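Lab meeting, action items carried over

1. Structure of the three-component assembly. Owner: GW. Status: complete.
Input record:
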Amino acid sequence: MILQILISGILLGGVYILASIGLTLIFGVAKVVNFAHGEILMLGMYLTFWLYSIFNLDPTYSIAIVIPIFFLLGTLMYLFVIRPSLNAPELTQVFATLGLSILLQNLALLLWGADYRTVKTFYSNTAVTISPEISISVSRVVAFVTSLLILLVLIIFLKKTYIGKAIQAVSQDRSAAMLMGISVKRIYMYAVGIGCACAGLAGALLIPQYYAFPTAGVSFILISFVVVVLGGIGSIPGAIVGGIIVGLLESITGVFVPELKEASYFIFFIVILLIRPNGLFGVKGAGEEGAR
Amino acid sequence: MNKQKKGMLIGLLIVTLLLPYLIQNEFYLHVLTSVLVYAGLASSWNILGGFAGQLSLGHTAFFGIGAYTSTLLYVYLGISPWIGMLVGGFLAVIVSFITLYPSFRLRGVFFAMVTISFGEVIRILFVYFRNKTTIPYGVTINYEPSFTNMIFDGPMGYFYVSFVYLLIILVISWKVKNSRLGFFLNALKENDEAAQALGVPTSASKFKALAISAFFTAIGGTILVQNILYIEPESAFSTSISTELALISIIGGIGTVAGPVIGAIILIPLGESLRALFSGSVQGLHLVLYGVLLMVVVLKNPNGIMGFISSFNKKRKKKREVQLEEVPDVRG
Amino acid sequence: MLEVNNLVKSFGGLQVTKKVSFEVKKGEIFGIIGPNGAGKTTMFNQISGFIKPDSGSITFKGNSIEKRSPKDICKLGIGRTFQIAQPFPKMSVLENVMVGSLLRTKSINQAREKAKEVLDFVQLNVPYDTPSSNLTISDRKRLEVAKALATEPELILLDEVMAGLNQTGVKEFINLIFELKKRGTSVLIIEHIMEAMMTLSDRILVLNYGEEVLTGKPQEVANNPKVIEAYLGDEIHA
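Predicted assembly:
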């Protein structure tokens, strides 16, 4: 029983990490909270769904199409929404991306209606039974493993490539990075592009388990807020730990009071934000933005 | 306020009061009533979001609390919504104190993130505890028109109730804006350290704004539900209510008294007519427009329509001043 | 009136205030000087409640204030200015000052009258409805003083209000401060312009690396070898 809770919590955590990694990446670099992050994820779900239902493409393979498209979408979002709000008042920083989220949600409603859509893969409903008490859904494992792989690729990219290193430099110290000759604005664009690609990817990997519908992003953005703030917003290792914590919390409360599992991590989130605005591990930089 | 402005306002008041007699069309009257209620709701939001600069995305909680309190008290205990409305208002103030008040130390975006989560928590908790009772998912208020029941047998009654609601909140807005509290909130919003150095009470000022804001948002919830006579958790506690109130204020002009009214006059008829024109098939169209409008306004002109008007006035004034200054030049 | 006793404050490992004690008497102009980083502004921040000292006491009119909030301290009668002027940028000059005068009255009209009076006193000669973001540096400094004065302080802390002003500006400010003294307001002032400090101060405290070098009359301070060393030493290290 305990093992089952742990396993499903960690598997869920993997999904949440993937869903929120883009949010924390964008915040870390550009110091903007992307309120439309959930809608990008929702669009990722839809794209994967259409690729599947029109071309019969398996969600795992559609990644190859999702990544470039969402990277492009991210750069557009950067140019038209995020860049103009970079040095703007708080009002603009909150409501520009919130406006985009309202727009995308209802555009989806307009185009595809309110129907719930999902992709049934051959492994969608199979579960592996390890012992009488433990059974694991295959699609969760697939999503978990793929998201770990993607995370690994992302971390290697950040550590090894020039753009990756520049992204890290900018998120640590904007002015120093600028002095080092890094084109900060261009790095912002890459970061937002990569962040969006991550969100779209998360959507692609989640569609076999979750339904795509216009407001599907709302619950994911709220979970992402919890995940990134727990670990310290802007920090990628923080998001990984945050994701696992939220996954575990959800699977534990899911056993006792299933109706309240969402409330549990929100309350946890609120308490953390109020007593430790820098996140559980006190990542530098986030707190200055978080509380004064 | 000068005489000319006062005269204009009184004229506007009289015209609005007579509108139901001029407009016989029921749909138009319904839209007009919606404008009044949403203008009142947005004005309530604006007292916290605009005057105090605390961008709340959790006002749906207060709205839902107000709507549900009066409805449940009326349907199950037979208590008049007029009383239930006040009970709901006070309940919202208590909840706001427990939830939003501790969040005041968070800055802008983080305050927005926390409040949006609060709205969700309240909804989830409400749905959970409702399941433990015999209260059905959707509650219908029986149509028994009487003043005590706050149910009217025509759009006229609702119009005047909404009108009085808006009038009260506008008077309070104006009083707050032009009082010591208004100055303090404005100072805290612009530079809270400098404000504290001048002895401005941070917590007390923000709490007053929060209490007024929560109370009147709840009252608006009651008035709206009495108009529809039906309530369910998903719509009463929907995040979109919070964003819509913010949107109306921002488009009209955040932090001004008239802003939310102007915002409601523009957005509500736009939304209602689009909804009426394209029913069913294109239901998201007005919200797509809202989203675009919100983005364009905050990116291009964060002060909204009021900001546009005041910069226009300033330009005109400057032009006049320049002309005046030129006179001595000519003489010299 | 204001007594500071054995005040200690450190940030991380760095002690920025080391057992400093002094007293400002009623109606006195008390100056604090010292090289950059001597801990002068930190001292102000502790007196005005923005930073809590690690140990030691601050007493104002018999009330211990070292644990009070900035707002309470202001209410008790200590006004302060900031080294970098902190106007409320979207408010007019008059409204800026009204925020201060509203501390002592609830009436907007009274606050407005009081604010006008203060603005005239500091000779901020611009129209009352000028947006504060449009002011020149010297006018910003005047506004900063006006805001603090509007709270009707018995003691005012002035943090480099003359920095960046020209000769006439400095002279006008010196007259202004003497005028304040005449009205019975005590003044605690930090300033780099030595000439001004020598003319103005009744007594001067010299700080270096958070430590008191000495306290004395302007003449004593000017001739003290330790003071000269502190300043010259600073030059060499810099």
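2. GW to write a short summary for the group page. Key points so far: Chain B is about 75% helix and 0% strand. Confidence is low (pLDDT under 50) at residues 327-332 of chain B.
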